[in-house]
Write a structure and sequence with these properties.
Blueprint: E1 9-12, H1 23-30, E2 37-40, H2 51-65, E3 72-77, H3 79-90, E4 97-103, H4 119-123, H5 129-136, E5 145-150, E6 169-172, H6 185-196, E7 203-204
Parallel strand pairs: 1-2, 1-3, 3-4, 4-5, 5-6, 6-7
Helix pairs in contact: 2-3
Amino acid sequence: MSLVHRNPLVLIHGIDDTVAVFDQAIAYLRQRGWSSFHPLNLTPNNGNAGLDALASQVANYVERQFSTEQPIDLLGFSMGGLVSRYYVQRLGGIERVQRFVTVSAPHQGSWLAYGRWNSGCEQMRPNSLFIQDLSQDIRVLSQTEFTSIWTPYDLMIVPAESSRLPVGREIKVPVLTHSGMLTSHTGLTAIHSALTASSLANVTVPL
């Protein structure tokens, strides 16, 4: 297959994950014309650092890897969705990111974040100061081609509807597990759709 020109795709993983979580997504997209993948390992990956500090790692990586004229696409999974949002909304990413996709991100927080008492998990709790701050100017995301992808069956994002945002495009998929959002055919198809869509119409895959 001849490669189609696409922006470089920066991929940001979730808590306790590494870049390996994106292996199947990268293989799937490579078969469909993507060629420039930039998965970033966040350090630490267990929530011991604040999401704002992790977002600085994203900002520094983008500055090192790409010229200021090069637009990028950004995909954030789970905690990585909030890290990516902080980069976009607070660290200048809005000037760099063309397409921004979050997959099962706890945009409104998750009750499971009470399971750990560290900086990152405290920020991922419902109504945290971190989430309140990002909610103040959420409309700035409309300056990107933003899509939130979520499943109503997610047992890591509680409630599952927390992965929705009232801006951009929304894709609801019937994936039964949190990790399956990056491995199932349904989840991968949704990611491909978000990265290629020219329309901001919402999509609901039949349950």
